[in-house]
Amino acid sequence: MLATARTFTLDGIAARPVRVEIDVRRGLPAFSVVGLPDTAVREARERVRAALANCGFEFPLRRIVANLAPASLRKAGPGLDLAIAVALLTASEQLEWEALPRVAMVGELALDGSTRPVPGALAIAEAARELGAEILVVPVENGAEAALAPGIEVISLESLAQLPELAAGRWSPVPPQSLPFVLDGDGGGGDLADLRGQPHLRYAMEVAAAGGHSLLMVGPPGAGKSLAASRLPSIMPPLARGEALEVARIASACGKLAGGPVGQRPFRAPHHTISPAGLVGGGSPPGPGEITLAHRGVLFLDELCEFRRDALEALRAPLEAGSVAIVRASSALRLPCRFMLVAASNPCPCGRGEVDAECSCAPQAVRSYQSKLSGALADRLDILTTVRQPSAEAMGGEAGEPSASVRERVCEARERQASRLGAGRCNAEMTPAEARESALAEGAAALLAESYSRRRLSGRAHDRVLRLARTVADLAGAEAIGRDEMAQALQLRRRDA
Q: Model confidence over 126-150: pLDDT tens digits?
């Protein structure tokens, strides 16, 4: 007898539909799984066999063929276990479920028949709704996550033993409560008041948060670079609901949505030993990297010059495009990565800097250390700021301005950008044409032209200065970019030796 069940497999961060077809017929006992399964899917045969036996079902001693359609799509992970078990029970006439054509299911099975969570429940729930499924059956641990998707009934299943009661309509589980949304919080990560002194760095952070600009901080160890970066989410505006779902979908597909509230901006700080594939994505099968996990949030690279140069160079295209294309011989993915790059670096290997009399680094060592950051990547960083060691008076003085006050100004600037560019867009995302159409007051255009010639700015740097100046004007509430705003933007891109 032939039976089918609907399920999904993850392809990057997207859920792809899979139809499980089970054929049970006479012949020598065998259980074959076809349709490009990976090792975890092939091993489902033994998990399903033990789960059925331990839940009181009979495993048919016949020839069983499980086809996973479409056959050209690679299936990965143990999330197909539940659909294989349901289709097998239906094909062996041990289960009658009239609503099965309207049901999608996903879940891993333990040997005792209980269900285990799988990644990507939110993406699967949204894909199931779009394909017309009315019910989605998931493990209990995935219920709250799947319930984030509106328009589909989510059933949390604890064990295969509950299937007969569910199919017969004698058991109606309580719908799971979705994960809470926190869209008006402070972003987490502490308060900016903890950063003592550093007025130039604080202003650079405010401009970066207001316009979504990338930021590089260069200074000695202990000057407050890492502290400042960790406080940046606390001054960023809250996510819109659609953006929060987008961030949650990515975290869910990567197995990092651990039942907490949804709506906070991600903050990713990978170690400097990370590989290019871990940073931008890759592997076999290809999957998302840190830049995708930092989508709509902050990617912090501490000790920038300790990172591998090939890993840093891989950031150039994603910084411009807001997405990354991962192409392999058998598959191709395009993943979102609209993030704020925040980096911190020492000026030399010893950290003191050449201007410090106690710096013992040879000139060649300094050049080798700083060469990890190529000119092409540095040109794509909007704000370059030098961080000095704070004075004793600043360290022992009063706390700085709190995050709530700075965040209020940042939100007002973002509202001006949304009214001008459209909802969800900020100045860092302006196209070159949009940047050059910015209104310039008298003197601003002349100052930019003079700096372009004198400092030999690139065309990209010219446009990035315009975007920075537009953000400075938005923070000041100015309609046009004046000479003062242009001067501040040029200063923010300048780093002293």
A: 999 999 999 999 999 999 999 999 9
